[in-house]
């Protein structure tokens, strides 16, 4: 694979493996079996590839379950990431609706 | 483009049905071009309905200007007031408000109205020249109609002829780019004068008493009383009883009420309009579903919808007529309030499967009128001898009850040849003419019976000796032997399930008579379902139009089949054959359709279950949740322990508000919960009285929950409130409003999806005064530590082992709640409010109407000024910004001698089952929608939470946190709902955006309270904020200290034989805004000219809040209804619109907000600012939409919009 | 100076390509995909790729009628996803709880 372009994001995120991260992506809302939620994912960085990162374990912040432990990891394409932070604790409570 | 209409208001005799019931004093709007024709037809047909006598419905396109020449042929001033439209309020308001020019027309005069159709939708028009309620008013007699605004570039044709048309309730609307659709105006109205052929009030042939009031649609109704008389007289329907054939066209032919005609799959819009004056109706439409907001695909799906006076909705059936499954036949459309349904408020949606060109006849020989196919759709096949199409393949016999369906009844008949020709490939029980179920759907089978047994509602032994309920067959023995407590049947399935129900009728033939009811032969029942997909001809569990009668006789079993295509919340099930006779005995239930792949567990044991009102779910993908179902009930026909009937009606068989209330067949009346010291403040405490017998919804702290809210019976609106937990109004839209209150009418279904952040007891209630008084409340109990009989949710951490015992009932006063301020505030500003509650007389208007015993919350610093009369009392409105911690210190200064009824009986406004309940000197302050710990700061003493009320001279602190800009939040006392709220113990909290300053609009100085402020924020435009608190149940004295017995005392033109008993308990009391009421009767006595009653030129400005603004100023109205009666009020603001959901840009925009009843809170941001987009200055009325009994009783005021700078009102800096 | 001006490929392209390669590497594995667009969720086996389109043999979506079919999903529109790698967590097999096996 030709990685002539340096991707600082990739390098930065690599360093965060094992750390907690909150990531927000582009969609207005997502829909799992009728349950809607804003794309706010909070969890431990378990893997970083050149096109995406993976959080595991991961909490999806839902209005009716703000600490929902998703049953398997979530991978997030870098191009969908709108913002992320390492400084929001996984158990932080904030309004979602 | 300008579109012109010439409209007349004329007197007309309105014949309401083919039995000759009529309104001799009818009034209608009509196009000039139809005037002579309609008058001639009515003259020729004095005893039969004339098609042209219908509410005027005219059309225009979005973006057009409508010039309407209005000519008044009535003998009093009338006008046309349009909702939704923008117009110059001084030229085209159709009213005479404030200092505007009078824009009503005198008798014989004309006036030109110019309206701007800014947006597609329904523009109701009605008269405001005569605002009197009752039979001397104009609205109840028919002076209303609608202007329907279509998408730009549309045109419309007559559905029968295909020719263009100028007016009519039905039209086919066409567009160069969009699909054509059938448009049906369905205009509910009530309280119209109805006389029989002899000119007297119709008499009920069974009770020999005067009939119920008129309830109908489009100037028509089809009462059971009339149809049943034909049976009694032996004309038709041998061996039938009445209610089970009320809608049966085989027996009676088609009704006079509206029949909405179309072909399978036709796109349609029902313009649902409430032009009536009084009741909140529930529109239900069989077989079909629609979105609550057609503009927002994430909005809630409905198949039943409450509607209050002068409001409207557009019902666009999903997938077109016949829904997803392509059903055909008759789908009944009706008001679900059974007494209204029986009174005649129903019609049909007739979906044909063959082409109707006018050459066919119904089975009774009546010609089927032609129906043009929509031009952009393939026409249905022509009827043939072998395939005659609906209804002519059905083997019925005219004059007799509809036939039973083929295949469905166990041991029943097969198909006739014609039926086989019409059937699907694999006809089977319940799915003969359409097949709703895909082959790969999951299959679930339930065996359900309906039985009669006694059910006890409360600890005092109030009981229904003839309760009738649905049970699963496997529970029959346990329920009948008393092993299992009877509860409404709730069974659980997942989406994509085909549901088979084997339904057995185990009821006795006879519903016995008693003080409430006459003996009724309820010999057949069905299982009618909402939401799911099914074949409406054979599987409706009803007997409708030319369909089959899909019910069964005692001992018989019928098989039904449905498909739950998507997650469908809780669908309602009930009997449709004798619903008016026995549904209030408990014949209702629900099937909850959960997300796919969900498992259902017994919350105590963790074993799989199929039914239950409280279960736990497990799902591999989404969070697990507790599922709770609550059914509200009214007309509960209960007897006390001694067999005495409780609240029997005036005579057996009367539908005039009999009986009491229940929730899941239980109630916990407050009168029985006074502790040893008789202080109402501890009524809800489990320490004093133990837990209520009503549902306690159990969970652990942090659990997700879904509350399914339904109403099982029977005629009234209820207002569901949860204290301390909020949810999204539209659960699939995150931009939707957060709410803690939901209005519900019978058959509606709502899902409140939320979670419980902290342990404690949360209060839920149907919180209007009479409901709560009679026991419609309970708890949501969130445990902090493990309890033995509640499994944890599988995806939540295991609860900690119990470290201390659970609290128990002691019979003594509850311990004081902990002081919430002992925990330091971590972050953000703290706002302190030192609030006192005391008594002071309120003067409601300049005519001297007053409440000498007012209870007010105010800042301590304002108390002296209020007591000395220097500051006028108004409800306390306090504000905080997002991020603020609010610390309230509340002090009670209540004095026993200032209460009107120290003996403990509050005689008026009354509630059912009056009882001793002495005034509490304690008080509390409960806020909605913001955050707090219910154990310390809910402002109420509930369950096993500690005491949060304060006694005289005492103070306590509450700590609240503003986590989101919720806007309007109601605030009220919870210490004594009987003696405090009517007297004014309420206010509002407004949660504003961060960084907002709150300024006095006249001085621009910062203020801490006030109903009228300017909001200034560095990132937002400055906004004028007007807080309108709508309240009722007020006890007023006049200037001579005589009690005002509203609503009747407020009628301008009372009928001669006015009967106080006709006023339901929940209509009692005076009403207004912000402790003010401009009762029109006071004005009328001074100057008896009806159309002048809103005029400030004649009377000066009203006592109700006068809100002032400049053209274009941003304005937000915070509308709060903290108190207290069950009758809902519509709020309407002339000339302006606002989004239904202020944070949802896809939201529909309207000029009304319906269902204002205890707990409602709304934020109305005026589109285009004051004066709307076109910026017209003038006096705009805000008011109730209820002609009967709100406007006359003073629920109106003025929003004054200036175009020139006024010395007293500094402009907003822009 | 931006990558393009230096004659390098934009970073966005490399990221997209890496993602395509990641899906390609896991042909034959089960994937879970959420999109903002209807029908919101896909679970199925990766059959192959067509440029930046992933070909998925779909077992489950939010709409039963769309299941048991091959769907081609634009990788740019995938909001979040998970692919079973053989070693890590598995995507649950979603079972409907029926009285009988569907015919």
From TrEMBL, chain A:
It comes from the Bacteria. This is Uncharacterized protein. It comes from Paenisporosarcina quisquiliarum. The lineage of its organism: Bacteria, Bacillati, Bacillota, Bacilli, Bacillales.
Automatic annotation (TrEMBL), chain B:
Transmembrane segments: none annotated. CDD domains: Cupredoxin. Pfam families: Cu-oxidase_2 (PF07731), Cu-oxidase_3 (PF07732). Residues 797-821 are annotated as: Disordered. InterPro entries: Cu-oxidase-like_N, Cu-oxidase_C, Cu_oxidase_Cu_BS, Cupredoxin. Keywords: Metal-binding, Oxidoreductase. GO terms for molecular function: copper ion binding; oxidoreductase activity. Residues 58-152, 1101-1157 form the Plastocyanin-like domain. This is Multicopper oxidase domain-containing protein. It comes from Paenisporosarcina quisquiliarum.
From TrEMBL, chain C:
It comes from the Bacteria. This is Uncharacterized protein. It comes from Paenisporosarcina quisquiliarum.
């Amino acid at each position: 694979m030709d990685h002539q372009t340096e991707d600082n994001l990739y390098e930065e995120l690599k360093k965060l493996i094992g750390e907690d991260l909150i990531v927000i992506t582009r969609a207005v809302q997502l829909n799992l079996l009728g349950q809607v939620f804003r794309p706010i994912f909070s969890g431990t960085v378990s893997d970083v590839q050149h096109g995406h990162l993976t959080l595991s374990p991961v909490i999806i912040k839902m209005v009716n379950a703000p600490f929902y432990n998703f049953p398997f990891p979530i991978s997030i394409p870098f191009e969908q990431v709108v913002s992320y932070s390492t400084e929001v604790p996984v158990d932080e409570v904030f309004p979602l609706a | 483009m300008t579109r012109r209409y010439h409209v007349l208001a004329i007197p007309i005799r309105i014949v309401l049905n083919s039995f000759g019931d009529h309104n001799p004093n009818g009034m209608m709007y009509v196009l000039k071009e139809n005037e002579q024709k309609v008058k001639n037809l009515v003259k020729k047909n004095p005893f039969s309905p004339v098609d042209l006598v219908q509410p005027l419905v005219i059309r225009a396109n979005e973006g057009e200007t409508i010039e309407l020449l209005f000519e008044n042929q009535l003998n009093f001033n009338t006008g046309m007031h349009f909702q939704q439209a923008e117009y110059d309020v001084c030229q085209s308001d159709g009213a005479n408000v404030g200092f505007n020019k009078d824009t009503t027309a005198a008798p014989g005069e004309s006036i030109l109205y110019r309206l701007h159709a800014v947006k597609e939708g329904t523009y109701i028009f009605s008269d405001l020249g005569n605002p009197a309620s009752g039979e001397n008013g104009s609205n109840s007699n028919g002076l209303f109609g609608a202007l329907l605004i279509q998408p730009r570039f549309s045109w419309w044709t007559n559905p029968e002829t295909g020719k263009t048309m100028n007016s009519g309730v039905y039209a086919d609307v066409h567009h160069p780019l969009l699909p054509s659709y059938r448009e049906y105006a369905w205009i509910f109205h009530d309280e119209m004068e109805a006389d029989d052929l002899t000119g007297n009030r119709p008499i009920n042939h069974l009770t020999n008493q005067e009939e119920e009031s008129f309830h109908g649609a489009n100037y028509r109704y089809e009462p059971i009383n009339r149809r049943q008389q034909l049976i009694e007289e032996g004309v038709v329907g041998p061996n039938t009883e009445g209610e089970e054939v009320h809608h049966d066209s085989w027996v009676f032919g088609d009704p006079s009420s509206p029949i909405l005609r179309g072909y399978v799959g036709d796109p349609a819009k029902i313009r649902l309009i409430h032009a009536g004056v009084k009741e909140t109706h529930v529109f239900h439409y069989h077989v079909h579903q629609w979105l609550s907001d057609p503009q927002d695909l994430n909005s809630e799906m409905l198949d039943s919808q409450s509607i209050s006076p002068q409001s409207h909705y557009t019902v666009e059936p999903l997938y077109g007529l016949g829904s997803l499954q392509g059903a055909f036949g008759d789908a009944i459309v009706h008001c679900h309030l059974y007494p209204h349904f029986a009174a005649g408020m129903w019609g049909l949606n007739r979906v044909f499967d063959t082409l109707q060109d006018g050459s066919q006849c119904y089975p009774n020989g009546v010609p089927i009128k032609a129906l043009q196919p929509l031009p952009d759709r393939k026409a249905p096949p022509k009827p043939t001898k072998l395939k005659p199409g609906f209804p002519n393949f059905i083997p019925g016999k005219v004059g007799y009850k509809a036939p039973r369906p083929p295949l469905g009844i166990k041991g029943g008949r097969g198909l006739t040849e014609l039926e086989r020709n019409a059937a699907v490939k694999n006809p089977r029980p319940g799915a003969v003419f359409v097949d709703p179920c895909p082959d790969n759907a999951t299959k679930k089978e339930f065996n359900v019976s309906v039985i009669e047994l006694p059910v006890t509602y409360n600890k005092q032994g109030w009981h229904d000796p003839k309760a009738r309920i649905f049970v699963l067959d496997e529970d029959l023995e346990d329920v009948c032997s008393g092993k299992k407590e009877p509860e409404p049947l709730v069974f659980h399935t997942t989406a994509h399930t085909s549901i088979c129900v084997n339904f057995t009728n185990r009821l006795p033939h006879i519903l016995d008579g008693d003080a409430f009811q006459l003996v009724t032969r309820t010999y057949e029942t069905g299982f009618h379902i909402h939401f799911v997909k099914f074949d409406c001809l054979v599987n409706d569990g009803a007997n409708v139009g030319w369909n089959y009668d899909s019910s069964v006789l005692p001992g018989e079993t019928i098989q039904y089949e449905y498909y739950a295509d998507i997650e469908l919340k809780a669908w309602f099930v009930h009997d449709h054959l004798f619903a008016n006779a026995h549904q209030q005995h408990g014949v209702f239930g629900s099937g909850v359709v959960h997300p796919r792949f969900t498992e259902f567990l017994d919350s105590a044991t963790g074993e799989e279950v199929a039914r239950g009102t409280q279960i736990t779910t497990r799902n591999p993908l989404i969070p697990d949740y507790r599922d709770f179902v609550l059914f509200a009930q009214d007309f509960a026909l209960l007897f006390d322990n001694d067999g005495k009937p409780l609240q029997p009606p005036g005579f057996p068989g009367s539908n005039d508000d009999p009986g009491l209330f229940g929730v899941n067949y239980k109630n916990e009346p407050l009168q029985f919960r006074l502790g040893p010291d008789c202080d109402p403040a501890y009524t809800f405490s489990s320490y004093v009285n133990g837990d209520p017998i009503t549902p306690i919804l159990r969970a652990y702290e942090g659990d997700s929950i879904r509350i399914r809210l339904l109403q099982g019976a029977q005629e009234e609106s209820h207002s569901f409130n949860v204290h301390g937990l909020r949810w999204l109004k539209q659960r699939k839209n995150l931009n939707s409003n957060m709410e803690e209150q939901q209005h519900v009418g019978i058959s509606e279904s709502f899902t409140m999806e939320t979670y419980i952040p902290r342990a404690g007891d949360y209060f839920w209630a149907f919180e209007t005064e009479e409901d709560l008084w009679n026991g419609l409340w309970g708890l949501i109990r969130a445990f902090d530590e493990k309890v033995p009989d509640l499994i944890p949710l599988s995806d939540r951490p295991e609860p900690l082992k119990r470290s201390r015992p659970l609290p128990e009932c002691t019979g003594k006063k509850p311990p004081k709640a902990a002081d919430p301020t002992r925990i330091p505030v971590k972050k953000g500003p703290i706002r302190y409010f030192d609030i006192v509650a005391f008594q002071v007389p309120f003067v409601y208007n300049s005519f001297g109407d007053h409440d000498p015993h007012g209870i007010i919350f105010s800042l301590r610093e304002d108390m002296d000024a209020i007591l000395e009369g220097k500051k006028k009392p108004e409800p306390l409105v306090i504000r905080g910004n997002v991020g603020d911690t609010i610390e309230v210190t509340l002090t009670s200064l209540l004095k026993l001698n200032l209460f009107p009824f120290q003996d403990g009986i509050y005689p008026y406004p009354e509630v059912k089952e009056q009882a001793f309940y002495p005034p509490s000197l304690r008080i509390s302050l409960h806020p909605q929608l913001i955050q707090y710990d219910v154990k310390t700061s809910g402002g109420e003493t509930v369950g096993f939470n500690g005491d949060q009320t304060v006694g005289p001279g005492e103070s306590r602190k509450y700590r609240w946190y503003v986590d989101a800009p919720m806007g309007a939040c109601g605030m009220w006392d919870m210490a004594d709902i009987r003696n405090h709220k009517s007297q004014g113990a309420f206010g509002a909290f407004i949660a504003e955006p961060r960084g907002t300053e709150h300024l006095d609009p006249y001085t621009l100085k910062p203020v801490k309270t006030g109903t009228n402020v300017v909001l200034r924020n560095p990132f937002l435009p400055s906004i004028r904020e007007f807080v309108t608190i709508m309240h009722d149940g007020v006890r007023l004295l006049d200037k001579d200290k005589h009690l005002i017995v509203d609503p009747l005392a407020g009628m301008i033109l009372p009928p001669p034989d006015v009967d106080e008993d006709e006023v339901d308990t929940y209509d009692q009391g005076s009403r207004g805004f912000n402790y003010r009421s401009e009762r029109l009767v006071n004005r009328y006595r001074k100057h008896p000219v009806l159309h002048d009653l809103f005029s400030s030129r004649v009377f000066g400005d009203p006592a109700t809040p006068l809100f002032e603004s400049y053209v274009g100023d941003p304005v937000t109205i915070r509308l709060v209804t903290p108190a207290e009666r069950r009758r809902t009020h519509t709020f309407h603001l002339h000339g302006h619109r606002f989004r239904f959901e202020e944070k949802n840009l896809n939201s529909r925009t309207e000029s009304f907000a319906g269902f204002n009843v205890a707990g409602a809170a709304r934020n109305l941001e005026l589109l285009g600012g004051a004066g709307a987009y076109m910026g017209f200055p003038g006096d705009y009325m805000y008011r109730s939409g209820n002609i009967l009994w709100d406007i006359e009783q003073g629920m109106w005021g003025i929003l004054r919009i200036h175009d020139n700078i006024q010395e007293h009102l500094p402009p907003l800096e822009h | 100076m931006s990558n393009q001006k230096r004659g390098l490929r934009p970073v966005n392209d490399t990221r997209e390509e890496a993602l395509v390669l990641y899906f390609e590497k896991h042909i034959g594995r089960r994937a879970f995909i959420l999109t903002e667009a209807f029908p919101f969720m896909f679970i199925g086996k990766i059959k192959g790729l067509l440029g930046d389109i992933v070909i998925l043999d779909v077992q489950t979506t939010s709409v039963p009628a769309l299941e048991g079919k091959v769907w081609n999903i634009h990788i740019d529109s995938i909001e979040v996803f998970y692919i079973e790698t053989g070693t890590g967590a598995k995507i649950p097999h979603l079972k409907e709880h029926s009285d009988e096996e569907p015919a």
